[in-house]
Design brief:
The complex is a heterotrimer. By secondary structure, chain B is α+β, with helices and mostly antiparallel strands. Helix content of chain B is 40%, strand content 17%. Chain B folds into three domains: 136 residues, Beta Polymerase, domain 2, CATH 3.30.460; 37 residues, no CATH class; 309 residues, Cytochrome-c3 Hydrogenase, chain B, CATH 1.10.645. In chain B, the strands form five sheets. Chain B has a four-stranded mixed sheet with strand order 1-4-3-2. Chain B has a three-stranded antiparallel sheet with strand order 7-8-9. Chain C has one domain: 3-Layer(aba) Sandwich (Rossmann fold), CATH 3.40.50. In chain C, 26% of the residues lie in helices and 16% in strands. In chain C, α3 links the parallel β3 and β4. The longest helix of chain C has 16 residues. Chains in contact: A-B, A-C, B-C. At the A-C interface, β1 and β5 of A face β5 and α4 of C.
């Protein structure tokens, strides 16, 4: 056991300080997309709806209904419409209320 | 129609039609090869009376590796008992019966395998008229042995898995597994999807082999539709696959420590594992490398600088933990002579991956010519077939993975995809996932959509070796050790 | 736990939150995941995350558990096992659904799966991700015991074109 004990001492502490302090490794985590309302057209919204493999997107008139809970951050929507889709950087996504995860994105780009 | 089976041509897939009446002869002729998979399909127009049975045979000899696929239309719902010729086929015979209602001509009992009891689920073909048996056909409870079911809810943080344990007290007489409570119907779900859409699900068939299974499916679609993946994109795939191998082997090491009660070793292995996962996130944008494989190539290029910067430190952690473990008698003693699989058992069951290589077989699909691995002989071999041999094979593979990643990065990688034309065709794809050969086969219609997708992660093949490894000479407390040394998933079996 | 109605119930809930906040026992439940969510959950006990320092513990016994951490799309064939595990936990208890599969993504409702955990179990906290990283899981567990604030409500997931600010959490 001495072997392990000494190694452990030499190794030091790797434990994150989160939640007391932010953790730098969070920078590299994939995050659900954010959308640009003015770059979103109804046509783009329909394309994104059909390309999402997880059913996270749907269009209701001039609103893009975006279920963050269903999103897997796969990146297909961003690849389809890079001008309209950005990354959110948000990974602390836990919610007590399921409806809080359903976001309505206004479609301001026209048809 | 032919009765003379062609040999596998190195680096290729040879397909040929075999009449139902000739199948037994042809199978005997091919039996020196490994029966890698067996599956059925019905025509796209839905005529469920015609079922085609396909057998995939693999030649594993270094320098000559390739595949042979036989296609046989099945009449009268019966085909020769292939498990008499290749025992490995029994599991697939059960699966095919549940999905297509066709069975071996000998009429011996077939077990429930993939579908849950009392459920009316959609099948890929015509449902069987009679239900399969509820227990393993070859199993019996006699003498002082008793049987108790364990699971599917097991210890914390592991997948749901149902074991039927047959024991006389401490000794394991038999163990059989059911994974049907994790059956998500993936092959049913993929019908009508494009290869690109299908990849989303293939990655999640067995998420810990996302790159392996995804690559196999993408390769099958590419073989069916025709395009050649650009070389740099092939190397991107290979970098991702080797990174996947590294973190899986670290995770297996952590699981081995947990199973032997060595929490300090477990922590050391988990430090290495976490570093590999963070490296994956830096290199490819996802800790588990989802979304790297694309149909026709790769959708993301690795951050080569990040890999060169982080890989030595992460691998150093892994290596130090491994060396300390190999010097720890309480650990080594628990693994030695535990869960022994002989080379004959491994061969007759058609096992793949580190499990097979530890028993002395040489199967490694990275040897198949035509991929980015070239002609390098990469196979790490053991001979004892016990848990310790599996562990040392994984360590040797990890060292090789580090070397390969450096080689591929130096040769150049990119995110490129060759466009898949929308055309009909069928093809076989494979990749050497961390658990072994992952196979996939797709048939595409004129719109380039899937009419039949066959997914066979390595776990779907290797779980049948688990029963043999656990039997006789092993006690209860050995089961977690053997399970960790196999490092399979229930998800990969259940799909 | 459902929303408290009376003052007594609210006091009870606050007491429970205080108790759970410092000592929480977690039972995991796999309803059909791809195995990656389980790997991230296992890493909660690993040195980089060490959930023990927060007073959280894993327990294999549902009888001993306070919180049920559920992964997977609730495959129908698993329903009985899921219900038995939940019923075996004494109240008060909290259910946390984690991962896109558990929240209704990836697999829709169909003959094989319910598609979402709350078709069978009452869910108190939802954690998105595919998979949710150990950091995201720590945040979710903190929210479940009332120690950490929810952040996603304030995130609009839109980018304001004029200033090019990305509205996101730090």
């Amino acid at each position: 056991m001495t072997l392990w004990f000494l190694r452990g001492l030499r190794r030091g502490v790797v434990t994150t300080r989160y939640p007391a302090r932010p953790d730098a490794s969070a920078r590299n985590l994939p995050t659900p997309p954010a959308f640009r309302p003015r770059a979103l057209t109804r046509q783009t919204a329909d394309q994104l709806t059909s390309i999402c493999p997880s059913g996270a997107l749907s269009r209701d008139g001039d609103v893009l209904r975006y279920d963050v809970g269903r999103c897997t951050a796969c990146g297909r929507c961003a690849a389809q419409a890079p001008h309209a889709v950005a990354t959110s950087g948000a990974w602390e996504l836990a919610a007590r209320d399921r409806s809080v995860l359903i976001k309505t994105i206004p479609i301001r780009g026209g048809a | 129609m032919t009765t003379v089976a062609p040999r596998a041509i190195p680096g290729t897939v040879t397909s040929f039609q075999v009449a139902s009446a000739d199948l037994e002869e042809v199978a005997k002729d091919l039996a020196e090869m490994r029966l890698a998979d067996m599956f059925a399909s019905t025509p796209a127009d839905g005529d469920q009376a015609t079922t085609t049975l396909r057998l995939v045979w693999a030649n594993d000899t270094a320098g000559q590796a390739g595949y042979v696929v036989t296609e046989t239309p099945i009449e009268n719902g019966e085909y020769p008992a292939l498990s008499d010729i290749a025992p490995a086929a029994f599991v697939e015979e059960c699966e095919i019966y549940e999905q297509f209602g066709i069975r071996p001509a000998t009429g011996k009992p077939l077990n429930r395998m993939m579908l849950p009891p009392h459920a009316d689920l959609p099948t890929l073909g015509r449902k069987p008229r009679t239900e399969p048996e509820e227990i393993r056909a070859a199993h019996s409870v006699g003498g002082h042995a008793f049987e108790f079911p364990f699971g599917p809810v097991r210890q914390v943080g592991v997948e749901s898995l149902y074991y039927g344990l047959v024991t006389s007290g401490e000794e394991v007489v038999d163990v059989y597994l059911f994974t049907w409570h994790k059956h998500r119907g993936l092959e049913w779900r993929l019908r009508g999807k494009t290869p690109e859409q299908a990849l989303f699900f293939a990655e999640r068939a067995e998420g810990l082999s996302a790159v392996g299974v995804g690559w196999a499916l993408a390769a099958a679609a590419e073989a069916a539709a025709g395009p050649q993946v650009p070389e740099k994109a092939q190397r991107t795939r290979a970098v991702a696959l080797e990174l996947e191998r590294l973190y899986n082997h670290a995770a297996a090491m952590a699981a081995l420590c947990q199973s032997t009660g060595l929490s300090v070793g477990q922590s050391a292995a988990e430090i290495a594992l976490e570093r590999f996962l963070r490296l994956n996130a830096r290199a490819f944008g996802h800790r588990y490398l989802f979304g790297v494989i694309a149909a026709g190539g790769a959708s993301r290029a690795p951050d080569a600088d990040a890999i060169r910067e982080d890989l030595p430190g992460a691998y150093g952690e892994f290596r130090r933990a491994a060396d300390a473990l190999l010097a720890t008698n309480s650990f080594v003693d628990r693994l030695e002579a535990t869960g022994i699989l002989s080379i004959d058992q491994a061969r007759s069951l058609g096992l793949v991956g580190p499990v097979a290589r530890a028993a002395g077989l040489t199967a490694d699909t990275r040897q198949v010519l035509g991929g980015p691995y070239g002609t390098t002989a990469i196979v790490a071999e053991g001979t004892r077939g016990d848990a310790l041999a599996r562990f040392t094979v994984m360590l040797a593979e990890a060292a090789e993975s580090v070397r390969l990643i450096g080689h591929f990065l130096d040769a150049g990688t990119s995110a490129e995809t060759a466009r898949l034309p929308r055309a009909s065709g069928s093809g076989l794809g494979w990749a050497e996932s961390p658990r072994g050969e992952a196979l996939a086969w797709v048939a595409l219609d004129d719109d380039g959509r899937i009419t039949r997708a066959r997914l066979r992660p390595a776990s779907a093949r290797n779980w049948r070796g688990f029963d043999d490894a656990c039997r006789s000479q092993n006690v209860f407390t050995d089961i977690p050790i053997i399970e960790a040394s196999f490092w399979l998933t229930a998800a990969g079996m259940a799909r | 736990m459902t929303e408290p109605v009376t003052t007594e119930e609210k006091q009870l809930r606050d007491t429970i939150a205080r108790q759970f906040g410092r000592s929480l026992h977690i039972r995991t439940l796999d309803t059909g995941s791809c195995a990656v969510c389980e790997q991230e959950i296992r890493l909660l006990a690993a040195p980089h995350y060490d959930l023990h320092r927060l007073g959280f513990f894993f327990t294999p016994a549902p009888r001993h558990a306070d919180l049920l951490l559920v992964t997977g799309p609730m495959i129908r064939a698993f329903e009985v096992a899921a219900r038995k595990t939940y019923d075996a936990m004494p109240g008060p208890k909290v259910v946390v659904a984690t991962g896109a599969c558990a929240l209704g993504g990836v697999y829709p409702q169909d003959p094989f799966t319910y598609g979402t955990v709350d078709a069978v179990l009452p869910v108190d906290v939802w954690i998105p991700g595919c998979p949710p990283s150990p950091l995201a899981l720590l945040h979710g567990l903190g929210v479940a015991v009332g120690r950490l604030a929810e952040k996603v409500r304030e995130v609009s997931f839109t980018v304001d074109d004029d200033s090019e600010r990305s509205v996101s959490s730090p």
